[in-house]
Specification:
heterodimer, A: 158 residues, alpha+beta, 6-stranded antiparallel beta sheet, 30% helix, B: 118 residues, alpha/beta, 5-stranded mixed beta sheet, 44% helix, 31% strand, globular
Chain lengths: 158, 118
């Protein structure tokens, strides 16, 4: 993991609390979520709301490592943690090509999974959407970005 | 940050097979979890209890592994229960609807009493 860069100020985006990357290796999502948790420690997000944010970051990082970067260790996932007057934004960017993944994250059908009609997997996007106030997905020819938004007034919101 | 690979110990309490889970439930946990479940099943209990007391991380792949165990339990007409989940993971079990299909108890004693009495 690269060291988090010092905080800087951006007039449009607010303050950058952290800007770092992790290699695309299974398990590194925990490094990402703990680094984000450390970066937001002065924002008053705590308890269950912090746990929700950590799970959202971990799942989005896993998506980026697996689906965007195909778990190639030399291809990093980049994370930016930004704060505005109203929101916390965590942007997680991979090197995926092609159209960005759909942000349609309807609740998976657990009964279909239990009866073997669907794979047991497929919980990631649903978990992310359930954990934060907004999730936005964007992309260009060489990158996909999942942006997680937490409204600070609601302190974790959901 | 090192991954804490899952270790599982299997024991029997009042006829209930208890799986003591220690570590993280993620993609690395599949072999240990399935081996421990098979060991529990070999004792032919009516109920298998997953004890999450020493689990500090479950990701979506781990949720899928638990769904897989639950599918096996339902196919064999066994009850699969959970205890000692943190508040956060109780919420995850609720929103994924895992808790609709496996009862979640605050501690092992409550789970064993409930399962023994049912």
């Amino acid at each position: 993991m690269t060291d988090p860069k010092p905080a800087r100020t951006d007039a449009e985006l607010g303050r950058t609390l952290a800007d770092f990357s992790v290699p695309s290796e299974p398990g590194n999502e925990r490094m990402a979520m703990e680094t984000v948790a450390e970066a937001v420690k002065n924002l008053g997000i705590s308890g269950e709301n912090l746990e929700r944010l950590k799970t959202g970051v971990a799942e989005a990082t896993m998506n980026a490592m697996e689906h965007g970067n195909n778990y190639k260790p030399d291809v990093p996932v980049e994370l930016q943690v930004l704060v505005t007057d109203h929101d916390l934004l965590v942007r997680i960017t991979d090197r995926g090509s092609g159209p960005p993944p759909s942000d349609n994250a309807d609740a998976p059908d657990i009964l279909a999974k239990l009866e073997g009609m669907q794979t047991p997997r497929g919980w990631g996007l649903f978990l992310i959407k359930s954990m934060v106030d907004e999730m936005n997905i964007s992309g260009d020819e060489g990158h996909h970005t999942e942006e997680l938004v937490v409204h600070l007034q609601a302190e974790g919101g959901k | 940050m090192d991954v804490r690979h899952l270790n599982v110990e299997v024991r029997t309490e009042d006829g209930i097979a208890v799986l003591d889970l220690v570590g993280e439930i993620n993609g690395f946990a599949e072999e240990a979890l399935n081996a421990a479940y098979a060991e529990a099943e070999a004792r032919d209990p009516e109920t298998i209890l997953l004890n999450f007391e020493r689990v500090d991380y479950i990701n979506s792949t781990g949720i899928a592994l638990i769904v897989g165990l639950l599918a096996k339990a339902r196919a064999a007409r066994r009850s699969l229960l959970a205890c000692n989940l943190s508040e956060h993971y109780v919420e995850i079990f609720n929103i994924t609807r895992l808790s609709d299909f496996m009862s979640v108890f605050p501690d092992e004693q409550t789970a064993v009493v409930e399962a023994s009495g049912s």
